[in-house]
Amino acid sequence: MHRFANPARFLRFARVLTPLLTVAGLLTTAIGLWIGLFASPPDYQQGDSVRIMYVHVPAAWLASGGYLGVAIASAVALVWRHPLAAVAARAIAPVGALFTAICLVTGSLWGRPTWGTYWVWDARLTSMLVLLFLYLGYLALANAEDERGGEAGRGSAILALVGVVNLPIIKFSVEWWHTLHQGPSITLTKSAIAPSMLLPLMISLAGFTLVFGGVVLMRMRAALARTRATARSLRLAEAYA
Amino acid sequence: MTHAAFIYGSYALTVAGLVGTVAWSFAAMRRAEASTRDRRR
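Output (structure tokens, whole complex):
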């Protein structure tokens, strides 16, 4: 892993991976959503509204996974002071926030025909809303730190680490409180979903994950390019001073 | 209640979000990398 922690080596690696991940991700997502919309069966209880699962569930998993990524990158940046880890954390956060927003909105659109309401203060829904606020707080703090140019993102990294406590709350909320949101249909060892529905779900998840990775690499490349441009401008200014 | 509006609405929002963030991030990356190349000259 440390081999890729060098920005120049990382950039060589990222230039190859960015188009691959993005194009493969968009194609896989298109296939998954097409199967989800037109080729998968309706649910015996929920009818056609179960098709919202193929966008809602992958978005929810990536929202939580993205936050875990922000926290791990923040921990690496705090402990080893590696600038690439701080860049990674800042690149993941807006994409994770987008997936959290997609999860909340599609969940709300699923809730109306299924539960008869767009929103309830259910434990799972509320903890996902808290996750969105954590992402927004992290982004606001990281932007403020970048503008001030002070200590390299220590406050935002600590906020990211503190916010990790919300991830097990999201995961176990449906078991601890038994509110309106259904329990887990898939665990690491078993699935309660029919194979005809599991296939488009897994294809969508793979597509969303690849797009997520591609976008994070694009944002990291942009951040590194901006840093290099600023450093070059400063060197020129010093040379002419 | 017809479910079609909720289903198509969810898919449209998701696709718009994904395509939008890919386009926005790609444009930002190209702009930043072009700016670095310009300053090198």
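Chain A has a mean pLDDT of 91.
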